[in-house]
Amino acid sequence: MGLIIFSGITGFDKTEFIRSFALKCLEKHHYPVDLENSDSRKFIHYIKFEDVLLDVADSADIANFLGRHSLHEKNNAIEQTFSRIGKQIEETRAEHVFLDIHLCCLYHSQFFPPLSAANLNELDRSVAPFPEASIKVVALIDNVYSIWRNLKNREATFPGTSLRLREILAWRSVELLQAEAVALNYTSETRDVRNYLFSVRHPFISIYNLVFSENPICVYLSFPITNTRQCSNRIDNINIFRRRMYEMATELGVVVFDPVTIDELALNFSTLDGENRVLNGSMRWPLDTEDLLVAEPHWPIEIPDNEVEEVRSDIMNNIRPRDFKLIDNSMLTTVYRKNYGGHSRGVTEEITYANSRGKRVYVYDPEEDAEAGVSHPFDPDVYGYRDVEAFYDAVKKGIESCQVARAYRRIA
What is the pTM of this model? Predict the structure, then answer.
């Protein structure tokens, strides 16, 4: 039994992403591609918290529920919802339970609900009877400008639900904090529950290996972005590295965390048109990957200039903690051309942080980049390579050694 708690804010079709992922998993494991099929539900039981809540609360929609004045009434409905979901999990006895949930909601400038350990323990009790039961928390995120556009497009159907960029960033920060709290609540002396930060713009293989590996081995990709994003040749070169790492993930069953799947710095390259900032698809880092579970945004995206200006510093302040969180979730950090286009402070900070956390760090730093770096390119705590194929071979062997160590610990 594995309980996967998929959290995330509104505005990026989280439910569609989770359902598409679940259906693709059913197909991969040769089950009927139908989440309501009885055989399929023995393998994956998908539960949308909001649907159960609205049934419990006898409410037409989530806005109607959140608009109720009684905090006690709403908390009681949420408590009953957790209890009902716990009973569903016990009755279905599925191999994998996918719980689709907003850990907090933003309604009329207020966040709701308060996080309740008692409610979370209802789910814990439901999986406890199953041998080797596990819990993972996966906090799903997308670019704020995509979310802004989606909410704006829904305004005609759901009046008053669009948000400013800063509100979206604030909501996401609270949601991620709640996800950390959920993981900590479930962690004990005998169980380490992780909260994985995950962009929905990773390919299928990354989320698949994350969910279906008992203790997933994760690899963080580190490479210069600011110094390379304005040069197509440099982008193409780095994208070759990214593709090679995704191929390795497919071959070895590991998870790749790719920082450019979230590219909110693209807003810095938007053009001013009257009172709006215009963002085109060519301004974000080209992902150049296949098998995504979400569609490309509808470009261009036009956002009021004053909204973009008020979040510039917030977006910068989000980058480093987000990348460090991905390193925390990873066993290995792979660094590609750390001096490509000049010294990269961001890559240097990621190497230093990964070292401080006891992570393995593999660095490819070719001779042609050496003049841009310091005289001694490799720190004593990293595995440094001048030859790119030797670098990939070392990374592969490093992953395989981690897999052997994990297998040995399970047997022991």
Answer: 0.94
